[in-house]
Write a structure and sequence with these properties.
heterotrimer, B: globular, C: mainly alpha, 10 helices, 82% helix
Chain lengths: 196, 248, 228
Amino acid sequence: MLRARELGLERGGRQLFSGIELELERGQLVQVEGANGAGKTSLLRILAGLSRYGFSGSVERFTPQLFLGHQSAVKGLLTPRENLAWHVAGEAGFSAEAIDAALAAVNLYGYEDVPSHALSAGQHRRVNLARLFLTRAPLWLLDEPFTAIDRTGVAVLEARLLAHLQHGGGVLLTSHQPVAVAYPLLRLDLATGALQ
Amino acid sequence: MWTLFHKFGSPPWLYRLSGSILRWLLPITVVALVAGSVWGLLFTAPDFRQGNSYRIIYIHVPAAVVALAGYYVMAIAGAVSLIWRMKMADIAMRACAPIGAALTFIALVTGSIWGKPTWGTWWVWDARITSMLILLFLYLGVVALYEAYENKALAAKACAVLSLVGTVNIPIIYKSVDWWYSLHQPASIKFTGGSTIDPSMLYPLLFMILAFYALFTCALLLNMRAEILQREQRTAWVRALAGEREGS
Amino acid sequence: MTSASAAGFCFRLVRRQLVLGLRRPVDLGNPLLFFAMVVALFPLGLGPAPDTLADFAPGILWIVALLSNLLTSDAVFRSDLEDGSLEQLLLAPQPLYFSALAYVLAHWLLTGLLLGLASPVFALMLGLAPAAIPALAFSLLLGTAVLSLIGGIGGALTVGLKRGGMLISLLILPFYMPVLIFGSSAVQAALNGTPAGPYLAILGALLCISIALAPMAIAAGLRISVDT
């Protein structure tokens, strides 16, 4: 689904990582590991195609992918329903029912029409994560998806990841929390470049 | 062709090449500038109407011509940097901006000095002066944008986009300023545009324009060499070079 | 995977920007208020003599339009970069060229269009002859669209920088100059009783060039700004 060769990144005269080789297959779950400042977010942004300059190596993308970053991309002036409808506007139109169902899936039932600025950071995050229940992209690149989410939210998210993987999807994520998905997990260590 | 292209992308190769070019270009430039100045200032006849004050064109016109050409050199380097992601093109583009700004500034100052005896005032909103002033703003905008970015790789890309926008706009700006001037031209300060120039004045002028192109090239290469050394200061070849200098 | 058509996507983007603008009506009024205030500065600075003001009115109105556009261009992409909407836009399969155009269109509808429609009032405040008012309104409607496109380039290039406000004016004011020249000339021509049509036609030509080229520069600028 995704192939990266000889990826290296230097920032401010310091080599963050180098020689990263990655080939992601269908149904694989990969967790990128590294200390703060090791370049996890940078790696994801390179893989997603957001960082185009200043890194060495090559990235090939074979399938549509969904990237969810640190920021929730939620506009305070729009309602969760409007926000989510815009988030998925790039992939053909989804019906209003589908959007409401996705919001219900992340426990935002009843909040569909509340202005988003009245919601908490965790709820913003959930609006963003509701995309996972709509998207048809086979490959997901998730940067710290569990941040600011409560325990039930994490459980919902993990169940969704499992379902996606079992249907042949691929997931590459960064997380400081252990990922409790009953599924074989590959770890990519940024310091050594080893994938196991 | 492609191997040459790749060589241009290699800092040590470019550093050595520019060194050997400068070894002969720099003396030629100095001699040409001195010879052209002497020719223009001492061996041409005074102008029928302007007397000796016209002689400043031997500095003013070459500076203005090369300043404008410099913007296009910058934009071409910018395009190369955007399309082929060549690091050396970034450096060339970055090096063009201050040199071009300096030449534009020289053209403005000499134009102003020439204007005092000719028009009786230091500054006139003449079409050419206004266009030069706008060119100065364009150069300074590129410098300001470059300095504002902390990540210099991105700074170069942003400046490349800006200078490409500038190349599309410069003809439009020049034409519109020309047109604006002809609309508002006050009768008292009619400019002698389009008048013929005597060959005895023209040849030293053309010679000085060539000398200024050489000067631009020298300044560009020197500026690029300094930038290359700074960027590559941690690499083995720069260390070796520094060691060589210290040892000898 | 099927993705939405570029036209449909852009339509939704314009609608989103308009909804965001209309939900905060104060922000819509701010450029107009700014315009009114700066117009009010000129009688204070130049003296209230109606003849002087009427002479300077075409230039004053156009310069204030320029400044007002400049101040709003800085903010076109800023909040979308800060909350991550912009990176999602860049990852969308639709061409960024059209998305950039959609941003600019929404910006123009919320600023230039309103300014053009409100301009007769400001013209009367400065004592501009009524005969020149249609030329003023039309030249502003056309010209502000060009300004929004050029301003979008500046906005896209500086949105990732912390102190963009001053920088954007240094970058794009030189590019505004042709619009200023032809816009104010259109009004001046109408004042002198000569046809303003040719100047409006030139503004239209500038608009065509800008529509063709500016979105490319905006798209390139956005990719650079998101890449940090």
